[in-house]
Amino acid sequence: IPLWQYIASAVYILLAFVAARVVNYLVTVQLRRLFVRAKWNFGEVTINLLHGPVRMLVLVILLQMGLRLFQWPGWLEAWLGKALYVALACSVTYMALKLVDVGGRYWRSRPLIKEDKTFNNLLIPLVSKTAKIFIVIMAVLVTLDNLNFNIRTLLAGVSISGLALGLAAQDTVGNLFGAAAVFVDKPFKIGDRIQTNGIDGVVEEMGLRS
Fold first, then answer.
1. pTM score, two decimals?
2. 89: confidence class by pLDDT, cuts 50, 70, 90
């Protein structure tokens, strides 16, 4: 490998960092203008959350493109390609997780939801955590599959474990779905007097299981 190729690669990496910062700045400026015109209260929060992931995403894409400009040994090119793909997958996953946080904050700020403290404190965090776990699991599986790992055995083990867990925790899972239905449909709320199964009383507290 000639010396000029190392020097050119170093210069390209430096230019990629600069270009990523410039693109990130332009995207931030355009988003800020768009949110100001739309009068969206969470515009600045969204910009702050996307600030890092956008820069990382652009940098990884530029490095992936620059890897094809020069001739490298096969093992080194394969290793660099996988490393950049993992970095890209981490950036996209991080951005998706932050978007879940933004969605949770937006939903929590709605006037009808804002007055329901039980809904804010219980259901929204539960939905957000469930969505994040799903995103992370799917990101890991897709990344491993694209890196040519055999994930069939892993999927089979996860399926069997999920089936065993579902059978062992049927009542708990049923209670969680029942709690979600109560919070969404609101057949009653704290302070209401209800009668059910021969019990007459006033609702004092609502949890995920009772």
1. 0.64
2. confident
